[in-house]
């Protein structure tokens, strides 16, 4: 498919992204960044780690997305006593005939909310993350495929760390994006109060996009063009996280380990998704910059010096973006 044909196909396709965003906007207030990241996760077959204090509509956002897609939805509250079988399922013994039957867990849905993932121990986290990576679960020697599309949004609370099990760095790398959610503005909070300030009021979304449309859009994204200069820019950004002195010698003592090649792949995929959302057939350097923070912030291991000086990975990524030459 030529670039002109692809551009025409993207232009002629139903603008479902805008329709879906508008429908979710009937429920969510001031969360356009999160909504766009959820759409990117769907388009790129990736999963999202969401960090924010309680009460910022994290659960409501994924429920609203499920309603817009007519997709199945499951919420798992992670607790210290949770077991892997509580997520993926188990084999149940039938004493009547001496056989085992399979009971599939809540992970067998299109959209999964793993609420407060850092509340559960590593064994439970790894069970979820293995299913995320392989998109299948093996029970009793039988492999069960997970439905498509399949998206996990895991949340964690940044302020209450007592009784939590921090996600290992290797597991963090499995998430396509890490998105941070902040408090609403005064105007947004007034709107929230107007909408939700009465008992018994429960906003909901209606199906506006089919799952088949998502699948078709994924095929289009694979054909979106990335210029060699933009590819070079993507690789250079990731390379600088491993060798910070290439951009700024002052960054070198702050980074213990940089991003993996998975970051390079995800950066390119997400940039294509942003181009698609903006109804373009090619990726620009600005697309890469727009998504770089969410792709890279959880993939940098900070040194003791950085932590001692209260320097965050967001600050380092922003510094790298300002120092690397844009093509």
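^ Assign residues to that structure.
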């Amino acid at each position: 498919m030529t670039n002109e044909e692809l551009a025409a196909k993207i232009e002629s396709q139903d603008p479902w992204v805008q329709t879906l965003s508008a429908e979710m906007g009937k429920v969510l207030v001031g969360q356009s960044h999160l909504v766009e990241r959820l759409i990117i996760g769907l388009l790129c077959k990736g999963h999202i780690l969401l960090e924010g204090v309680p009460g910022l509509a994290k659960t409501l956002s994924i429920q609203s997305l499920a309603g817009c897609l007519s997709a199945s939805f499951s919420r798992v509250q992670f607790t210290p006593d949770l077991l892997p079988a509580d997520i993926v399922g188990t084999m149940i013994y039938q004493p009547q005939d001496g056989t085992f039957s399979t009971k599939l867990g809540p992970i067998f849905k299109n959209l999964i909310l793993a609420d407060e993932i850092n509340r559960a121990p590593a064994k439970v986290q790894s069970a979820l993350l293995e299913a995320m990576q392989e998109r299948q679960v093996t029970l009793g020697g039988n492999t069960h495929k997970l439905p498509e599309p399949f998206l996990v949004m895991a949340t964690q609370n940044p302020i209450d760390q007592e009784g939590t099990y921090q996600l290992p760095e290797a597991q963090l790398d499995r998430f396509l994006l890490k998105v941070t959610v902040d408090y609403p503005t005064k105007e947004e909070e007034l709107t929230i109060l107007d909408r939700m300030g009465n008992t018994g009021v429960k906003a909901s979304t209606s199906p506006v996009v089919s799952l088949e449309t998502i699948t078709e859009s994924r095929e289009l994204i694979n054909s979106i063009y990335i210029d060699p200069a933009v590819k070079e820019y993507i690789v250079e950004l990731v390379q600088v996280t491993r060798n910070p002195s290439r951009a700024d010698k002052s960054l070198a003592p702050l980074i213990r380990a940089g991003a993996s090649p998975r970051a390079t792949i995800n950066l390119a995929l997400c940039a294509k998704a942003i181009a698609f959302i903006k109804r373009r057939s090619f990726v620009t350097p600005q697309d890469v910059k727009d998504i770089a923070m969410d792709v890279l912030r959880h993939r940098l291991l900070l040194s003791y010096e950085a932590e001692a000086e209260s320097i965050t990975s967001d600050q380092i990524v922003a510094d790298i973006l300002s120092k690397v030459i844009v093509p």
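The domain at 224-323 is CATH 1.10.8.80 (Helicase, Ruva Protein; domain 3).
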